[in-house]
Amino acid sequence: MEPATAIDRDQAAPLLPDLFARWFTGRGWAPRPHQLELLAKARAGRSTLLIAPTGGGKTLAGFLPTLVELYQAAAPAGRLVSTGRELRRSHGLHTLYISPLKALAVDIARNLEIPVREMGLKVRLETRTGDTPASKRQRQRRYPPDILLTTPEQLALLLASADAPYLFDTLRRVVLDELHSLVTSKRGDLLSLGLARLFALAPGLATVGLSATVAEPDDLARFLVPQPLAGTARADIVMAQAGAQPLVTMLDTEAHLPWAGHSARHALGEIYALIKGHKTTLIFVNTRSQAEFLFQELWGANDDNLAIALHHGSLDVAQRRKVEDAMAAGKLRAVVCTSSLDLGVDWGDVDLVVNVGAPKGCSRLMQRIGRSNHRLDEPSEAVLVPANRFEVLECRAAIDAVADNAQDTPPLRTGALDVLAQHILGRAVGAPFLSDELYAEVRAAAPYATLARADFDAAVDFVATGGYALKAYERFAKIRQDTRPGKDGRWRITHPRVAQRYRMNVGTIVEADMLKVRLVRSRASGAVIPRGGRLLGEVEEYFIETLTQGDTFVFAGEILKYEALVEDEVYVSRSTATDPKVPAYEGGKFPLSTYLAARVRAILAQRETWYGLSDQVREWLEIQQWRSLLPAPGDLLVETFPRAAKYYLVCYPFEGRLAHQTLGMLLTRRLERARQRPLGFVANEYALAGWGLGDLGLRIARGELSLAELFDEDMLGDDLEAWLAESALMKRTFRNCAIIAGLIEKRFPGEEKSRRQLTISTDLVYDVLRKHQADHVLLRAARADATSGLLDIKRLGEMLSRIKGRIVHKALDHVSPLSVPVLLEIGRETVYGEASDTLLAEAADELVKEAMQ
Amino acid sequence: MSVPAHSRASGNPEPRTASPLVRGRTDHVVTIASVALVADPAGALYWPELGLLAVADLHLEKGSSFAARGQLLPPYDTAETLQRLARLIAHYAPRCVVALGDSFHDGGGPARLDNEGRDNLRALQRGRDWIWLIGNHDPEPAVDIGGMFEAVLAIGALTLRHLPSGAAGEIAGHLHPVARVAHRGRAVSRRCFAADSSRMVMPAFGAFTGGLNIRDAAFCDLFGTLKFTAHMLGEDRLYAFAAKRCLPG
Is B146 left (phi over 0), alpha (psi -120 to 50) or beta? Predict the structure, then answer.
């Protein structure tokens, strides 16, 4: 990869037609170097990855080549097509724009119309999302616009239609927005397969990827071009000029800094003061429950009646749109939000970003910071608010990482087999295919470049008859190969119903089972519940299952009382309760990045770096040093101590909650076998604490128990297998794969009955399949997901190998200061609110006193 | 069919009558209409006095039933269900096995049964009485699966049937009871026997059978109140909870 060089203005001038140059001047702008570079790449027919900070004119840069080409083509030719009412001339689809968010596609279309209108370009641009009416979709297929703005799922649907070759053979460019975010999930896998199909349908196609800064740009650039059979191919990379270095500071609170928890309630007044001191503030938190909590608290403290709003992924879409519009119109002073606003519409007026809680990763943090101040020459301003002591270390590490311009985005994925299965069915729905041809096409997609033929064939077999060793379903096949003499051996669908079902179930986003939350009036006892109140959003089914009638909880910024469950809707009324529960959403829990974890370990180990920490935190670490020890960066500290008739083991791997949970499960099994009578464990992002009835410290001292053996890598063998058989997390992972691959269908044509009546429990399928065909392709897909997903086995494995021979054991006679935060998680569960906070505070005080004496 | 409680066919194997420690545990005895019955953690009911083993809602060939409608679920459910049943039969050596209806997931199920499944079933039936009670999924008697077909089986104080009516002395299936209990903020959900002193609903036995929470109105209608007990199936024993202690959902 050649480093991108800025193109000299004189050479570049002819790239931009006069009309465009005048438009830029008329707006008081000058084309940015990267915008001109993209034009040059387009002229040379090169696919390009543009890496630019938010606000760098990224979107316009992506579309300029298209607009210029469409302006210069200006050919009257084109084919005659029927719009349904009349005959028109069409040049066919020129550019496809794909965004991870429906709302973003719509917004970009609106923004793009401005230059098109102002320059008087004859360019037709349309959006196509799940909300586009059927009649318009049909027209779009027959009489395509010049530019179509859509999502990965809609692309899959378009490709699975018989019109696809006609629709896409004129396609010249594909613009992929927020590529860094798309490629980290199964949606990226689906998109890569769609892209591979587009390359086959339109060989002259060039792609433009728009991305924030990533750790490995060369890898990301592979995504944009077809991969050859041997070696790799990459798109060219253009780097936009970086903006001014952001001003990131950590709130040094006046208040007592909590030992644990994520509420940041201690800093409420200081956050409120920040809002008052700025025009518009975006307040990012990590989970929806934190968003609800903080919003409630801010609202309570809002003496000046500032316009503060709430935005997260489970709120009703209409409500979210309202907040976004108010934000765009400059009517809001602050929005409390989750990753739901990590991407999306740019707001020029945001002058402060507050990140409450752990930053988790420095690339993510930089993208969030980039949401403020889109004038490149002025620095963005951000304040980090740690909610507890460990988060102070993490914030410090993140600020240093931002200053170093470090990146910790995840590596490019290996394509998932369940997504492949969905794509294979989609290809058969579109047109009959030959195995050899489709295998070659699929391997052109970067995530699937190393796909083995055997895995591909297993996926085809799965789509056809379920992929079972017991060949029982030939007569129920969904796709079948025509192998009669004289026939070509193509796979085709066996019934139109198969196509219909594919269309209803396309996509890779599997939500937890959600229930709609509807606001009704509180019922008098025994009265019939009035129906049809306002929709507030959706909440996870398992949360509602823990409630009984009359329980209160915080949702959508209000305190609500649970009234009843009617089919798949939760009826709630307003409540004045003072100790509501906060829904324990899973959403938005990202694990601490490996990179930041390493930096945190380094800070802990090096006293001379503590200057950036507050006095409270320094004191805490000093006492830990004195009482126990602070581990060297590569070491794993294991502490054992007795407390209240139980024996504790606390270790500090810093590998994130998910990997720690898995470690906790496996250690528990081993301790059981060693007759240590383990009772339970609790994990947070930094540490794992287990307790039981056996005196571990004593057993270790006597040499009866070896920590090296306890933490040996071989726990990822039989112990892991045994646990996977019953793990609820593994079952949830399997469920997602089963739904994406089409084994379990969430939606059926013509049957609008409740989901609960129709679906079979995937847990039962998992149990039976695991027992009778352990190497089934879906089990392998689930296993691959578990490696990096909910069980984070890969990270655990890396940690176990890293700490080999580096376990430092400290036998203490009581709680250590470093262990207090994780021990405070015991019994916390998910209940916040007044009453439980008081209990927590009491428990905390007791522990703290004990530790600091 | 109605038989007196103490009649027994001759030539059948001697049933296991005593109920001391089995598999290292104590039998979980549930008394319905003064008849002591052993509830097995596998989800079956054993009547020691008669050597009668009852199972409900086998839903054999459910996988292939879904497959016929386009969802290609694993075709291993029948083999799995019959294996579980074989283990119980080997353990109790019952003189008589009663399947409480919905033994096949649909009317076409017996015809879809593969040869291995058919052979296994025959082996289980050999040397004992086998009664298929009809259910709503399998209302017609089927050929080539052995056994006798009955709508209702009344034996002494007890009546075995598929659909529960709430009558005293009734042992029924159909509802697939599941109970959910929360402790320390975590909820556990298991299949269960739902019973008071005069009636019982058995858990579904089939490998692919889901469940209905016992706090659903259907159970309240049946028992009149929430004054019944959920005997939840554990790994190797049962756990009894008052229904009102269990969570809805």
Answer: left
Residues 6+ apart with CB under 8 A from A50: A34, A38, A58, A61, A62, A208, A209, A210, A211, A238, A240
Token pair belonging to A73: 């083509």
- Indicate if the alpha-carbon torsion angle B21, B22, B26, B30 is positive or negative: negative
CB A713 within 8 A of CB A804: yes
Cα radius of gyration rounded to whole Å, chain B: 17
Provide the token pair at A489: 């051996």
Helices B77-92, A762-772: axis angle to 10 degrees equals 80
User: How far apart, in whole angstroms, are the C-alpha atoms of residue A353 and residue A368?
Assistant: 7
A473 contacts in chain B (CB < 8 Å): 64, 67, 72, 75
Chain B residue nearest residue A742, CA to CA? B71
Name which of B62, B77, B187 is nearest A546 (Cβ-Cβ): B187
CA distance B166 to B185: 34
Instruction: Tell me the chain B residues in contact with residue A830 when contact means C-beta distances shorter than 8 Å.
Output: 185
User: What chain B residue is nearest to A568 in terms of C-alpha separation?
Assistant: B249
* Chain B residues whose beta carbon lies within 8 Å of the beta carbon of residue A731: none
**Beta carbons of B114 and A466 less than 8 Å apart:** no
Q: How many CA atoms lie within 13 A of A293 on its CB side?
A: 29
pLDDT by 10-residue block (mean), chain A, 853 residues: 43 76 92 93 95 78 94 66 62 92 83 92 91 88 92 95 92 95 93 98 95 92 95 94 86 84 86 94 87 88 93 82 85 88 71 91 88 72 92 93 90 95 98 96 97 98 96 94 86 94 87 75 58 74 66 75 76 76 51 89 91 89 93 94 90 90 86 80 86 88 92 91 80 90 75 49 91 96 88 92 95 92 64 28 49 59
A441 CB neighbour count, 10 Å cutoff: 20
Nearest to B187 among A473, A545, A761 (CB): A545
Q: A767 to chain B: nearest residue by CA?
A: B207
Residues A478, B72: C-beta atoms closer than 8 Å: yes
Quick count: other Cβ atoms within 10 Å of Cβ A45? Answer: 10
Per DSSP bridges, beta strands B2-3 and A688-692 are: unpaired
> What is the C-alpha to C-alpha distance for residues B231 and B39, in angstroms, rounded to an integer?
8
Numbered residues of chain A with Cβ closer than 8 Å to any chain B Cβ: 465-466, 468, 470, 472-473, 476, 478, 497-498, 501, 541-542, 544-546, 548, 565, 743-745, 760-761, 764-765, 767-769, 771-773, 776, 827, 829-831
**Nearby residues of A179 by Cβ (< 8 Å), 6 or more positions away:** A49, A209, A210, A211, A220, A223, A224
- Are A545 and B73 within 8 A, CB to CB? no
Alpha carbon A328 to chain centroid, angstroms = 24
**CB atoms A473 and B75 under 8 Å:** yes
What are the CA-CA distances from residue B165 to residues A466, A563, B221 (Å)? 40, 30, 10
Q: How many CB atoms lie within 10 A of CB A623?
A: 16
Longest dimension (CA), chain A: 91
Given a contact cutoff of 8 angstroms between Cβ atoms, the answer to whether B66 and A738 are in contact is no
Among B62, B74, B207, whose Cβ lies nearest the Cβ of A468? B74
Best of A731, A745, A759, A772 to mutate (most B CBs within 10 Å, chain B): A772
B249 interfaces chain A, CB cutoff of 8 Å? yes
Candidates B180, B170, B115, B102; CA nearest to B142 is B102
Q: Report yes or no: B248 at the A interface, CB cutoff 8 Å.
A: yes
One-letter amino acid at A195 equals: L
Sign of CA dihedral B63, B69, B70, B71: negative
Instruction: For tokens 């969802």, name the residue.
Output: B71
Q: Please give the Cα distance from A272 to A35 (Å, whole number).
A: 40
Q: Are strands A646-651 and A688-692 parallel, antiparallel or unpaired?
A: antiparallel
